Amino acid sequence: MIDIKNLCKDYDTVRALDDLSLHIDKGEFIGLIGPNGAGKTTLLKALMGLVRPESGAIAINGMNIWEKPVETRQLTGYSPEPPVLYDYLTGYEYLQFTGRMRGMNGKNLGDRIADLMQEFALQDKAAELIADYSHGMKKKIAIAAALLAEPLLLLLDEPTGGLDPEIIFSLKKLLVKLHGQGTTIVFSSHILETVEKLCSRVVMINKGRLVADDSITNLYQHYGNGATLEDIFIARVKN
Ligand code: ATP
Question: How far is the CA of 48 from the centre of ligand 1 (A)?
Answer without folding.
Answer: 16
